[in-house]
């Protein structure tokens, strides 16, 4: 079989289970509802390699309802609910400001449940939504910040091509006590700014990509006390499995890559990540 054909055939084949972590950690950001498996199967495979909890993200009203339900049914799942910034822009553009307000109120209701540990993923995305969606995204982001503070829940931020505005709005509104930059995408200078504010930085499989040296530089500059790890599955599968389905059980691959960048033993970094996750979401 030609190499290109073989690679294409492997795209839908799940990667093998990695060696288990000696110190269990949490996948701080995943989308079980988008993965080709059952919740039970995903949790079982994850637990087998030392990933003993996941944070399930609901990024529109329907998915937020599902995240809350699944977290209520499974001790190994915590939920986060929000309107993704692109979803906020879509609702306002297609249905109007009143519809966005109504969706935000439903998120607020869901966020009050005990199993919902965070408001997220919210924030700004200037990559997929053009200038016409900026106002709706920023209004939604500010509402999520206020709600996280009102309920004393964690804020999980999606920040794509919008670093300056995300940091500015956090300063203007005042960040919640616990703030997580999901799939951290800034540079080393930004990681120092985040560290100064006490923001958690969650790194995903893209830190293993060959083109991601600036991301590894940011990781190197980030203090271990503020590091989390995530899959963002089914997206961002770490090397050497890039292009194949991602899932929580692949967290050990990313943890080991992170430990190498940090010059730390895997067990030491895992202990930091485990403790940080409890501080961030517990």
SSE inventory with pairings:
Elements: H1 3-10, E1 25-30, H2 39-48, E2 51-58, H3 61-73, E3 77-81, H4 85-95, H5 97-111, E4 116-125, H6 134-151, E5 154-160, H7 163-173, E6 179-181, H8 188-197, E7 200-203, H9 213-221, E8 227-229, H10 251-262, H11 266-281
Parallel strand pairs: 1-2, 2-3, 3-4, 4-5, 5-6, 6-7, 7-8
Helix pairs in contact: 3-5, 4-5, 4-6, 5-6, 8-9, 10-11
Characteristics:
single chain; 282 residues; eight-stranded parallel beta sheet
Rg measurement, Å? 18 Å
Total number of distinct structural domains: 1
Strand numbers in spatial order across the main sheet: 1-2-3-4-5-6-7-8
Please identify the structural class as seen in this structure. Answer: alpha/beta
**Fraction of helical residues:** 40-55%
Superfamily (CATH H level) name? Metal-dependent hydrolases
- How far is the N terminus from the C terminus? 49 Å
Distinct helical segment count? 11
Shape: globular
What is the count of β-strands?
8
Parts with pLDDT < 50 across at least 5 consecutive residues: none
Level-2 CATH architecture = Alpha-Beta Barrel
Q: Roughly what fraction of the amino acids lie in strands?
A: 15-25%
CATH topology: TIM Barrel
Give the CATH class: Alpha Beta
Main sheet properties = 8 strands, parallel
> Order of SSEs, N→C?
HEHEHEHHEHEHEHEHEHH
What do the pLDDT scores average to? 96
């Amino acid at each position: 079989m030609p190499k290109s054909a073989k690679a294409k055939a492997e795209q839908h084949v799940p990667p093998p289970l990695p060696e288990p972590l000696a110190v269990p950690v949490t996948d701080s950001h995943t989308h079980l509802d988008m993965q080709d498996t059952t919740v039970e199967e995903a949790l079982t495979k994850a637990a087998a390699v030392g990933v003993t909890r996941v944070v399930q993200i609901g990024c529109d009203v329907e998915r937020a309802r599902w995240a809350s339900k699944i977290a209520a049914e499974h001790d190994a799942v915590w939920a986060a609910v929000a309107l993704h910034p692109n979803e906020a822009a879509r609702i306002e553009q297609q249905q109007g400001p009143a519809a966005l307000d109504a969706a935000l109120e439903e998120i607020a209701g869901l966020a009050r449940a005990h199993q919902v540990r965070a408001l997220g993923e919210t924030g700004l995305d200037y990559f997929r939504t053009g200038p016409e969606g900026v106002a709706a995204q920023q209004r939604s982001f500010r509402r999520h910040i206020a709600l996280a503070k009102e309920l004393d829940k964690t804020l999980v931020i999606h920040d794509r091509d919008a670093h300056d505005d995300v940091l500015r709005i956090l300063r203007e509104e005042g960040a919640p006590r616990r703030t997580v930059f999901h799939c951290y995408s800034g540079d080393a200078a930004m990681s120092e700014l985040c560290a100064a504010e006490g923001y958690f930085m969650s790194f995903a499989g893209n830190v293993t990509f060959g083109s991601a040296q600036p991301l590894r530089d940011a990781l190197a500059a980030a203090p271990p006390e503020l590091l989390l790890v995530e899959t963002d599955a089914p997206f961002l599968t770490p090397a050497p499995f890039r292009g194949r389905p991602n899932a929580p059980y692949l967290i050990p691959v990313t943890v080991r890559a992170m430990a190498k960048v940090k010059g730390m033993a895997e067990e030491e970094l895992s202990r930091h990540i485990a403790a940080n996750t409890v501080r961030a979401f517990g």
